[in-house]
Every structure is written in C-alpha cells, then in structure tokens.
Write a structure and sequence with these properties.
The mean pLDDT is about 90. The protein has about 170 residues and is α+β, with helices and mostly antiparallel strands. It has 2 domains: about 80 residues, P-loop containing nucleotide triphosphate hydrolases (Rossmann fold); about 100 residues, Rossmann fold (3-Layer(aba) Sandwich). The longest helix has 13 residues. The strands form 2 sheets. A 4-stranded antiparallel sheet has the order 2-1-3-4. Strands 5-6 form a two-stranded parallel ribbon. The relative contact order is 0.15.
C-alpha cells in the first residue's frame, strides 16, 4: 500500500500561549481533492503554512509525498503548486515579467509556451502591471504561477477569494 500524499501527525502550532492548531492528524491519498472548511481562526491557513514550510510547527510532523516538510522543503516545492490566501506578487512588475521570473525559479520546461497557454485559459492580460490589476486578476496571476511547472500537488489557501464565478473560459481542449 502506498503512503498518503499528505500525511500530518499530531501537528500543533502555538504562538506563545495562543493556540494556532492542536493535535491535527490528516491523511490525504493521491488523487483525492480535499478542502478545509471552518470559521476564521480555525487553523486552516496555519496548517497550510506549515505544509509549505513558511512557519514551523511547535510539535508533530507533516510529510508531502513521503518527504518531511522541513528537511526536504526544496524537493517538495519543486512538485507543489501553492496559492497563498493573499494574492500579492511583485507589484512593480507586469504579469509577464513576474511569470517569467517564476519560470526561471522553477526551471520549468517550455516556460514561455506554458505562460501563453495558461494566460489565454485564464484570460489574463500579461502586459498590465500587477499593482494595476484587480484582486481577481492578481489571483489569476497566482493561479497561473502555481501551475507553471506542472505540479503534482496543488495547495490552495482560499483559492476563490476575489474571483468571478466565470473567470475560466472553457476551451474545449480538456
């Protein structure tokens, strides 16, 4: 039997005496779609930030694709697409400059072609400065960025915030 693609064991995070999360256990199998649902402050983003090694847990462990999220973060990030809850990027760049930077960061193959495909799919104007984009279009930039390197896993923190319900045009190429 394969190990879970995401495996969280007794994960806790405290900020001083304040609880972020406490004793979280979770297994997600490859191919599953999983969503955290809960009120603000429930620990959804905290758990995701630990998975992405943006903050360290107080105790417990988390693994993605069998790799420890702290010790093997570089390998994990090469195979994970991540969208933070706040879609903020380098605001002085235009969308194309930012996505080209990301292509180099990920060492993604056929990068310019991938940018073109995804920006067309999401109807994203690559020439506009990120600072001048609406929240929804900044979120689209984040979505495109998360998909550039064809990740094995997508981890999305509040992925629909700011998006119109019909932001993706169906191309018939699925």
């Amino acid at each position: 039997m394969n190990s879970p693609i995401i495996d969280i064991r007794d994960l806790s995070k405290f900020y001083g005496k304040a609880r972020g999360i406490e004793h979280v256990n979770l297994e997600i199998e490859e191919g599953e779609i999983f969503g955290f649902i809960g009120p603000n402050g429930a620990g959804k983003s905290t758990t995701i930030r630990i998975l992405m090694n943006l903050i360290f847990p107080t105790s417990g462990s988390a693994r993605i694709m069998g790799m420890d999220v702290i010790r093997e973060t570089k390998k994990i990030k090469s195979q994970v697409g991540y969208i933070p809850s706040d879609a903020s990027a380098y605001s002085s760049m235009d969308a194309h400059e930012f996505l080209s930077y990301c292509i180099r960061f990920y060492k993604a193959q056929n990068g310019e072609q991938r940018i073109a495909e995804l920006s067309e799919m999401f109807e994203l104007d690559l020439k506009r400065k990120i600072a001048d984009l609406s929240m929804g279009n900044r979120k689209k930039v984040s979505i495109v960025q998360s998909l550039l390197h064809r990740p094995r896993i997508l981890i999305l923190d509040e992925p629909t915030t700011g998006l119109d319900s019909c932001c993706v045009r169906r191309t018939g190429k699925e």
